[in-house]
Amino acid sequence: MQKIFLSAVLALSVILLAGQQALSRDSQGGAEQTLLRLANHERAVRGLAPLAWSAPLAAAAHQHAVRMAQQNTLSHQLPDEDGLGERASRFGARFSIIAENVAEGPGAESIHQEWMNSPPHRANLLDPQLDSVGIAVENRDGTLFAVEDFSLAAGRLSLPEQEGIVGHALRARGLRLRDSVTDARRSCALDHGYAGKLTPSFVLHYATPDLQSLPDMLEKRIQTGKYHSAVVGACPGSAKTGFSAYRVAVLLYE
Q: Which end of the chain has the least Cβ crowding within 10 Å, N or C?
């Protein structure tokens, strides 16, 4: 009978422990949804677009929250841990901008208020350029370790689509677009210079996360009024991190 009683007690303890762990996971999930709701409320009252939930960012945030809770410390990069960009990239996030908030506190509301009272954390929450977020909360003895990973998500644009965006910006500045895209793409693949038979008056190679904005050097060249036509060539950028840096070559002709 004693063995049966002890087994029953042990089984009850296991059930209670499993129930506590499930309750802890549920409360953490509830805290994450509370932080998302509070963040988007702050943005809505200021006329900003809501942040979309990103599963890859949430996975990266969860890994970091767990490590912070285990080490009982706050940091954007713990010892022997990759930086934010590398962590997010590993889980499949692709982005042009990335940012992070970390905090610890007794509850989601107090953590959110802590972030809103801190200028750099508040700036991340209300940044109009950011459109995605992943949030994770980890409980350590009643203290919540929270992570918000934000990004400007980058779509996958084909080379013609990339060239079309830059070409539109050039046409808006009064330049006529030439048809020699093949030579421009070959030029883009070079570190410098150009490829093809027709010699341009000016060549600029650059990498950018924002195709709609032209580099200052290119803007200044166009403003001289010397150039009347251009051709744009795009080529594959680096895939080593989650940052989407498009590679472009612009050839200007007088």
A: N
Scanning the structure block, which residue is given the tokens 């009024």? Answer: 225
Listed residue (21, 19, 14) closest to 6, CA to CA: 14
Phi/psi at 229 (5° precision): -145, 165
Instruction: Output phi, psi for 77, to 5 deg.
Output: -150, 110
Reported confidence tier of residue 4, pLDDT bands at 50, 70, 90 = very low
Residue 95's pLDDT is what? Answer: 84
Is residue 94 classed as helix, strand or coil in its secondary structure?
A: coil
Q: State how far the Cα of 133 lies from the Cα of 111, in Å rounded to an integer.
A: 16
At how many degrees (to 10) do helices 159-172 and 181-188 cross?
Answer: 110
C-alpha distance from residue 249 to each of 27, 66, 166, 188, 227 (Å)? 51, 43, 10, 5, 16
pTM value is: 0.64
Q: Which helix (H) or strand (E) holds 103?
A: strand 95-105
Which tokens in the block code for residue 122?
């508040």
CA atoms in the 13 A half-sphere facing the CB of 108: 18
Helix, strand, coil percentages (3-state) for the chain, rounded to 5, are 45, 25, 35
